[in-house]
Design goal:
homotetramer, 371 residues, alpha/beta, Rossmann fold, Dihydrodipicolinate Reductase, domain 2, 2 domains, 7-stranded mixed beta sheet, 6-stranded parallel beta sheet, globular
């Protein structure tokens, strides 16, 4: 990457675009938990959100905007954290890139393969530092696993396994597949990124089975609440990802990698190191309630690393290409689940699916998010 | 089942047909760890095995045979434990059934769906008490899981997951797929039985990806050493089974069931309750070396239950139909892995696969064990 | 040990003296789970117990006795398992020894140091094979710990820790300290044996604090339901044992040994390898209900080893001296708890406690079991 | 507490007194991880430390001092974090108190009971907000345990257990008991605070056994490297603390509380949620290397809470009295270990120990830190 004006700045001026669930979390980190950056500005459509954020972070009202376009245009801004709804990622990232800002974008970059490609072309042309929010690479567990693999402790990776379970049936507004990309893209995209990262190879083919079992509220939206996805990698490795929305017992994220000489698990169901033992409950421990509790520190570290990269002129570790490959795989798996588990190659996703298949998808009366 | 002459006998005379790895283990249990039965006779082709077993169990030489046919014909025999090589299961079980003996047969009943059906016809016609050696149903962990599911603790089962990993690359003599049924049938048949039992439904479709990564010795035999198998059940549940031959760290058997209200794991990697902590090794514990250490007590209990069933005139809990369904699913998964992961319905296995598919299989220059 | 008439016998004739909770458990093992021995006879004061045991084990009525004296006198008997109430251990063991029988005696050998010494004199004079029921030495966990220590994995042992918690407040009939020896002798004697065995040294001094917190029913008997015991060993190691009667959540037995190079835990609270996860309960697993579930196999193995020793003319691994040292330490700790935590040397127990101390004990209006 | 000038300030000016191991850690938190405060100034005797800290935190050189007296006198300073060597705690805290600053002081407040009392008199007279660095109260594990106890989940607490093991033999400069207070005060003071906090009662008597087994370097200093401490509480509960310097496998901190209805563990040896499985190592996981990795977040939270308390005019949760009681108990246990395990009441520590005992202590040729 060529050196940029912000490179070497003692304090990066960061704007947060969209201060909802994720945006306010990132804003909190930028404001008081990150070195080398400060929360300079933010935008959000909701007045009560703007007011609360301004108060919490002592933000100058002149730098709190209703429209993201105004934030992007702000003088002195160096970088943005993009946390608007996913369907707006593309337009915001393009505008920020054209404006010369460094961009951190929440996952997924876009909901369709086509739009993702268009955005990446703009970003590449502009030479924009872009990082995708695959925060698991900054989690102490996943990072340690990667390190052990690179040290050769398990030999050549041969099988990747992963589970991502959310602890509640989402309301339709939240889980509408035309907004979320559907179950697999919404919940498993982190597993997909981990699969590529930990196996050290590229997925060539997937096949998936999906089902709607519990969350009736999203049935009419045409989404599923359970899926299992088989994967084949270009280096001969295999994989399986399972995802589910209704793990009411807690947020359950676990992965494992088996290799030619050993294996490893990354797993944590325990929220604290406390075990409670009672006559009624046997031995019990709390389960991590949700993603902020499980990955809070990883969310902080990924933004710290983004800030460090921008200030030091290094390329971010998680690139737009990582974002593209993940959405291609997610699209292929979503499509496979729609057509009864038929294997779908990533190549065929890149080539565009044949009309017959497309008809199946459209015939179901619902958009398949990413094809 | 109609009452039989052996029903109510104080001590069942049991013969062990084939005293190899499994046969000698069952013989040990029958001889000194089972009540209501005694080790009455055995047969084995190898003179040194016969001699060793006779000495260990104080067996009358007149009841130790070279040929299984002679054992079957023995006066006073009530039941047999069939532990000859799998390709001989069919002929031995049929003969024992015709002779009026109760039969406990190691898994799988036969290597092909067709032969399994033929055997079951004979068994049914003769009214033979027949139990298949799916010993996990008698393991304290799996049995407790079943109990918790029946109590409604996890609601309606929605996802079944299972891992079966063997700790060594087998020599070709042992893992020849024409003898073993291939990786999936050989190692995952217990997972398949657990899938049906714990989900409480029938598998309707599977798709599998397989690979040969480490065990080069079996490459020329056309077998694989890794597989992942997706499953769909008639009640809407999904599943995935993973199996691998080269988990050199130990014998690793784990399962989990997710339901509409909760989930459960059945997992034990720990061979003893001992944790060792050293500067070099962090915290370490031994892993179960192999199946006798993990399921030893379950192997004893399954034979005890068989003996109890025969003596009390109850039908065994694990029937010939369980054996048939397991081999059908195993055959479908093996076939799917051969044809690039294409979904295969159990119905199509029952109907016989189309000629085109058959050509694919035969064209690979190797018999696909169970189709 | 000189060779005895029973040495080399194919099948040892074993009599069980007292068929209560422990006696019936041992009888079951001798009858159907032990090789080289058979359940030849038994005695019990209660007619319904005698009847039930005779029926369960197909015992000839002529070998089922009301009085233990008659069992001891039985022709053809080779060995006895002594499971009468502890206060009778001494008289039965002496009689069996004089009669020339091999003796397996449940722990503790006797309730007082003095009587233990008298019994051992008789046993030694007669050359009786005597084994004390410290079954933890045969538990796979504790045995593995010993093996790792002997292999030098943790260096020189420096600290021994142990917890023994019973899951219920006992009724006075069962926990009367004049019958049980009091909390420490009753529940911690196995920890005391493990301390000596795993540290590989002898306890020289103990100090103990005790309290009555929950089990009011035994308050009037002068016993306690909680204790912590510090220990000092002749090789410089330290130790602590904790014991409690009211761990209503389950039977909780754990130990650990820290050494100069590492450490190890022996711990198992999990009754099965099943984890249950629910919205109400977090992650839960069952706790071992009681001692038969935790140590059942160790109870079988200790009797198997006793039988093997007797048949092969080897000295049993756990000697009368082990029984004596354990009761000396238990007596010292019980005494320390009575006198406010004052350190008590084992030497002083051997020398007899001074009159002043004795007054303290007697003055409390209750017998201190083992002094 | 009466309102103070700093109460309500948006940003507290905090000075760090002594920027060694602990001071630099706290300075990092104050500088970039704490809200409502800023790192305003610091002092340290070593020029290279001052230079490094100034550079790292962009500190104005005019607010970086060699002498703590100059820091204390600085205009605009609101509060200090006292992290000089323990023997200087008293003089610094008194000076800061007299100067009207709020004070956060690392544990232990002072090494002797007498000096601790003197300091507390000054602090009380001045109405100084004073918080002692017992950071475990802010650890998610210990805090959750406290919460469960307050909810009545385990009934009335009856036994407290705790282990604190350091992972290396310290050099004499670091572990000199005249500087550190000796093994028990240095390593177990957190366990002592947890004992009082979780049991919800006061310790009345302790007895301790200590030994020097591995760390020869501190032998000549008269310190020990192993200890076990029994405790008796005023509400009838019992306890035991174990501490050791040579747990080379890692930093091992675990506690448990047993109650009348259940129990709980607080334990974490696992540094990450990663399990590694290899043929050589069985199942392994990393152990927490040291205190910053185990309690880093708790160290941050305790200072955050101190800042919040000062700004909001609330009294800090951990008072000078907590510091005094901990040092009294630590002194009693240290003394008991010196005199062969004799029980020592906290009352006797308060009253001053008799001359005879004092002679024992002095006669050993070394100061007993806290008596």
């Amino acid at each position: 990457m060529s050196s940029s004006p912000v490179q070497g700045k003692a304090l990066l001026n960061v704007g947060v675009v969209g201060a909802g669930r994720m945006g306010s979390f990132h804003a909190h980190h930028v404001a008081s938990r990150i070195s080398g950056a400060r929360l300079y500005a933010l935008s959000d459509a909701k007045p009560e959100v703007r007011e609360a954020m301004a108060r919490e972070h002592n933000l100058d009202p002149s730098r709190v905007f209703e429209k993201w376009e105004d934030l992007i245009a702000l003088e002195g801004l160096d970088a943005v954290v993009v946390t608007v709804p996913t369907r707006l990622h593309g337009v915001v990232v393009r505008a920020a890139s054209d404006r010369g800002l460094a961009v951190f974008c929440e996952k997924p970059l876009c909901l369709t393969v086509a739009e993702t490609r268009e955005v990446l072309e703009v970003v590449e042309k502009n030479g924009t530092p872009l990082q995708i929010g695959f925060m698991r690479r900054f989690d102490s567990g996943y990072a340690r696993a990667k390190e052990l693999i690179l040290q050769g402790k398990i030999g050549e990776p041969t099988i990747f396994k992963s589970i991502s379970r959310d602890p509640f049936c989402p309301p339709p507004a939240f889980a509408d597949p035309s907004q979320s990309g559907g179950l697999i893209v919404d919940l498993s995209i982190h597993d997909i990124d981990m699969a590529r990262w930990l196996i050290g190879g590229e997925v060539t083919q997937v096949s998936a089975e999906g089902a709607l079992r519990v969350c009736q509220a999203i049935k009419d939206l045409g989404d599923i609440d359970n899926a299992v996805v088989n994967m084949r990698f270009d280096n001969g490795a295999l994989g399986n990802i399972e995802t589910c929305r209704h793990a009411f017992y807690g947020y359950d994220i676990r992965s494992e990698v088996l290799g030619s000489k050993g294996g490893l698990h990354i797993g944590v169901l325990r929220h604290t190191p406390v075990l409670l033992m009672t006559q009624e409950g046997g031995v019990q421990h709390d389960v991590t309630p949700y993603f902020k509790e499980r990955f809070g520190e990883a969310y902080r570290r990924e933004v710290q690393d983004f800030v460090d990269c921008v200030r030091e002129g290094r390329a971010p570790a998680i690139t737009g290409r990582d974002g593209l490959l993940a959405i291609e795989i997610g699209a292929a798996a979503t499509y496979s689940a729609r057509v009864g588990g038929r294997p779908v190659t990533i190549e065929s996703i890149r080539a565009g699916l044949p009309a017959a298949d497309d008809a199946v998808v459209q015939g179901a009366g619902r958009p398949i998010a990413s094809v």
